[in-house]
Amino acid sequence: MTALPGPTLTVDPTRLHAATAAFFGALGVPEERARLAASALCHGDLTGMDSHGVFNLGRLYHPLLTSGRARPAAEPRVLNDLGACLLLDHQRALGLWAAAESMDLAVDRARRHGVGLVSVRGATHLGCAGFHAARAAEAGLVGLVASNCGGQRIAGPPGGRPALLGTNPLSVAAPALPGRPFVLDMSTTVVPTGRVRVAAANGEPVPPGWLEDEHGEPVTDPAAFDQGKARLRWLGGTPDTGAHKGFGLGLTVEVLAALLSGAAVGPAPEALAGEGRPHGTDDDIGLLLLAIDPDVLRGDPGAFAAASGGVFETVLNCPPLTADQPVRYPGWWEAERAAERRANGVPLPAALHHELTALGLDLPTLEARR
Ligand SMILES: NC(=O)c1ccc[n+]([C@@H]2O[C@H](COP(=O)([O-])OP(=O)(O)OC[C@H]3O[C@@H](n4cnc5c(N)ncnc54)[C@H](O)[C@@H]3O)[C@@H](O)[C@H]2O)c1
Questions:
Q1: Does the record bear Oxidoreductase in its keywords (predicted)?
Q2: Fewest Cβ atoms nearer than 10 Å: which of 58, 210, 294, 347?
Q3: Is residue 94 part of a domain?
Q4: Which residues, in sequence order, are bridge partners of residue 360?
Q5: Could you tell me the CATH number of the domain that includes residue 61?
Q6: CA 177 to ligand 1 centroid distance, Å
Q7: pLDDT in tens, 177-210
Q8: Which helix (H) or strand (E) is 334 found in, with range?
Q9: CB 192 near ligand 1, within 6 Å
Q10: How far apart are the first and last CA of the chain?
Q11: How far apart are CA 154 and CA 216, in angstroms?
């Protein structure tokens, strides 16, 4: 979870969704698409993954759509349809919408074949990978989403100087307990860049372990990242504690999402001339959207759901080390937070609320109504 800086204002989640959809609509995104894209974006704000919610509307999606790097009404094109698997070119359609549609397509194929695999090139930023993977879990299937960052390079290999890969998110979702699916949703670097920037804006140090200097020593000043004096670590931390596993996961996403589909890749020869600081752009992103229908696979409807319920119930019942910190599985706290925010409103930093209002979003605050 990311805590955004400063005093907060609270907005009604339905109004936030409607205003976001209207914003996309005003930029030429067809109405139905705009609604689905708004759901994908507001998922970040509802679940507490705030670094990938409306925080990115003005910073990322507005310039993407107005510059033409994303095309609001583009129709994804089928390049190859083999039944259980498809190769698509998203043609720079808005990734928040197109990734969700592609996962729904994977689910549809999995219901017929047991597995549905949609490989995508020409994609744009999909937001929270977990929003799209969870669509499979909501349908009773297992979902996997991998996204590279096109030619955007943010993190270098352990022991290597230039940045070669993006923060390459990976998500796996599955039905678990009622209303509480398993949703592992993460960057393959120790954190996404958004969380470093949030800390910098907040004037707060980051924990040792997120950033390192050119000698591999920990850096806790988040401003050092954008100054080019620190770089993100991979999951696993340092070479001694498993950084190669995180780097390997980042490369795994590159293989699954970009090499399979023919999208742009981070480790292209021109990357070697780059510095340790981020370089390149996240155009022509590659995605993998995979759905597996356990009932079709096993031929025993309900068996997977029952077993999965047992596994995740056991995780919940694991005695905690400290009484006030119960053991939960990935996706649990996000579902809890979404339920709470649906009931009580979504907190937005005042500065972000101001920015969104200036962009034309109609967002009355709950505080103003009291
Ligand atoms: N589109 C992109 O290019 C891009 C790139 C990087 C990240 N992202 C997105 O950024 C978002 C944030 O990523 P992140 O790496 O900061 O996620 P995070 O560190 O907040 O969470 C990672 C995972 O850990 C689980 N988790 C966290 N605390 C837990 C606890 N106490 N108990 C059990 N499980 C717990 C969460 O449920 C989640 O599945 C994600 O939605 C990701 O898809 C997108």
A1: yes
A2: 58
A3: yes
A4: none
A5: 1.10.1530.10
A6: 20
A7: 999 999 999 999 999 998 898 788 778 899 999 9
A8: helix 332-344
A9: yes
A10: 28
A11: 16
